[in-house]
């Protein structure tokens, strides 16, 4: 399987980290991305510039390859289905991408498979939403094309109705939660599964913002077992081949609910490059090449901070504070080969390790306060 | 420093691992290698095919770069000196490469700096060697151009004189030794130094062959302190900027002697990619970019097995047993992007980790016995 010709749809940072992991096995990788300056451009063994959403482009890209995978869900699934019919191995399977691309189908799938998730109502358009005022507060989610926080609106009362999407979507009950957790599962074509340890998103004590990711999550053994079990059951229900990142809510009552899933490497697994025996990226290759899955054993507690473009700056990226970070033991910045910064653009992440938890958290705070992505051209 | 234009002379496996480590920091790397199919070819951001030993080629390669480094010592040092004079940062410094390229100068340097090494006599040609029969048994080493075991002959008595080199070289007393150790030191331009934990080469109990590398070395605290101290002192004596791999002999009397050194990443540090907080490759970048050096803390004991082309096979490489290896927890094969195998060619290495030492050694044996690089075209 190591000599397969492999394609990745998408050449962003997840693709970059997949390429880095593939160096160990000499994987012959072809990357397709619409952006000539995509993060993967300079180090991909083969790079094709082209649309991920155009049937012909995706089909032609894949037709001389053996295995095709994705690092972003917004791709032309019809082309992937055509390639699958011709005997190409397409992982995750196009049918799974289709189910997950549409949040309406995704939610119905959980209901059908009795996987725990917040209550929801399907809505057809904005007017339809007005029929469910008593269901608020709720999140109105666009069925398709939501991405990275876009396509979600919180509706508290009838006054917010103008914020509702005028397209097919769903209302999801706003559940109070104590923690946001995530579990990444890998599953190969033989049906073997491995999960990574449960992680948690740590929120700022005052602002309602994710401050950093922390692994392993500080939760009871019981909650952890529940989270791991739900993640495995979800991956198995989808029969996915590849990675499934399962984002979860932990309610104050100790209930664990699925928030949403991603059928690919995920932001909540970047730290595994440094902290775990097998990274999520290597595990993705193992899963889609139908190889034995690797040990997900963690060598110690870790944290991860996203490095976002500072508000107010747009232009060639300058990383202020890198030297301070590099001078701190076991602090590892990873930059995404993006020449230009924009406010809140994901420019990199920083992994932090420390055997001592208090010191780990102190280092995470230090990191957050001491690095900034700016530009000498202000916006 | 992260935005420097960086050049590597040599595009072999060490260059490949340097490139992989450079992904984290978006380093803009240019690679020069005479072989159009060099391991680095496919993933280097920039690749130039050309001789490493031709003045003009090396000079022209370096003249538009900011920082130039090597992954092999056999390069045109005059061109590097010219580049250094023009203000390029050339690390390791050309003067250090010159000292190390010639084993005669290297040995005299140890004597002058009072660094412990086996007794030696400089010889001019084969006839000259015959003057020192009473000094045998000894190793006759070629001054220049010895590499990877070539350029060394063991002379036991006058009968072996025809094996001596008829060029400038040196006779080195054959010291009995208990273990071969190695310490990799990093030093940046500020003079900061960090060493990696001492490792040992484990020999086959019957054949006199290195079986695998083991980290940390199983030696007394006293011997370890001596090895670390000698390595630091050697790096400081050379005033090297970059990595210095110091290979050492441990004698039955507990004496630690320098065998030889390499001013670059080294075979004895491959395991640091998986086992240590900072790998030797990342540490090399930190050192030559004058950044703070990283923690060399090991997350646990590890072993490393070289993957050599099986004797009797020459042609397109086939890796027999990869799946068995991948099914063993914490066994990580790394292949060198070499399409063709040859007897004893370095085709890759395998890193093995295990918190339990007995189990680590058992896994190293399992690995050695279960992977083979062959070709379906026999020699």
Automatic annotation (TrEMBL), chains A, B:
Pathway: Purine metabolism; IMP biosynthesis via de novo pathway; 5-amino-1-(5-phospho-D-ribosyl)imidazole-4-carboxylate from 5-amino-1-(5-phospho-D-ribosyl)imidazole (N5-CAIR route): step 1/2. ATP binds at residues 103, 141, 172-175, 180, 259-260. It comes from the Bacteria. GO terms for biological process: 'de novo' IMP biosynthetic process. Belongs to the PurK/PurT family. Catalyzes the ATP-dependent conversion of 5-aminoimidazole ribonucleotide (AIR) and HCO(3)(-) to N5-carboxyaminoimidazole ribonucleotide (N5-CAIR). This is N5-carboxyaminoimidazole ribonucleotide synthase. The lineage of its organism: Bacteria, Pseudomonadati, Bacteroidota, Cytophagia, Cytophagales. The gene is purK.
């Amino acid at each position: 399987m190591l000599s397969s010709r492999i394609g990745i749809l998408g050449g962003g940072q997840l693709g970059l980290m997949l390429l880095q992991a593939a160096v160990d096995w000499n994987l012959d990788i072809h990357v397709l991305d619409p952006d000539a300056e995509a993060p993967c451009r300079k180090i991909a063994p083969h790079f094709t510039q082209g649309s991920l959403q155009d049937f012909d482009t995706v089909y032609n890209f894949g037709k001389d390859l053996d295995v095709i995978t994705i690092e972003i869900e917004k791709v032309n699934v019809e082309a992937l289905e055509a390639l699958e019919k011709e005997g190409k191995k397409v992982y995750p399977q196009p049918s799974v991408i289709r189910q997950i691309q549409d949040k309406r189908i995704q939610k119905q799938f959980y209901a059908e498979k009795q996987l725990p998730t917040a209550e929801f109502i399907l809505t057809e358009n904005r007017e339809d939403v007005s029929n469910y005022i008593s269901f608020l507060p709720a999140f109105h989610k666009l069925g398709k094309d939501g991405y990275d926080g876009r396509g979600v609106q919180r509706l508290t009362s009838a006054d917010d109705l103008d914020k509702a999407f005028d397209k097919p979507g769903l209302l999801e009950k706003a559940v109070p939660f104590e923690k946001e957790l995530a579990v990444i599962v890998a599953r190969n074509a033989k049906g073997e599964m491995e999960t990574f340890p449960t992680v948690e998103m740590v929120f700022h004590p005052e602002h309602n913002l994710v401050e950093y990711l922390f692994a392993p999550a500080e939760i009871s053994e019981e909650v952890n077992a529940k989270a791991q079990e739900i993640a495995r059951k979800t991956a198995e229900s989808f029969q996915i081949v590849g990675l499934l990142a399962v984002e979860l809510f932990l309610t104050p009552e100790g209930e664990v609910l699925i928030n949403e899933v991603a059928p690919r490497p995920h932001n909540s697994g970047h730290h595994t490059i440094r902290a775990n025996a097998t990274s999520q990226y290597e595990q993705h290759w193992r899963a889609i090449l139908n190889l034995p899955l690797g040990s997900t054993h963690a060598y110690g507690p870790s944290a991860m901070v996203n490095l976002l473009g500072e508000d107010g700056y747009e232009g060639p990226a300058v990383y202020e504070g890198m030297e301070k970070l590099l001078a701190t033991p076991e602090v590892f910045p990873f930059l995404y080969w993006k020449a230009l910064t924009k406010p809140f653009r994901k420019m990199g992440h920083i992994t932090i390790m420390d055997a001592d938890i208090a010191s780990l958290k102190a280092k995470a705070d230090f990191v957050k306060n001491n690095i900034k992505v700016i530009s000498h051209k202000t916006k």
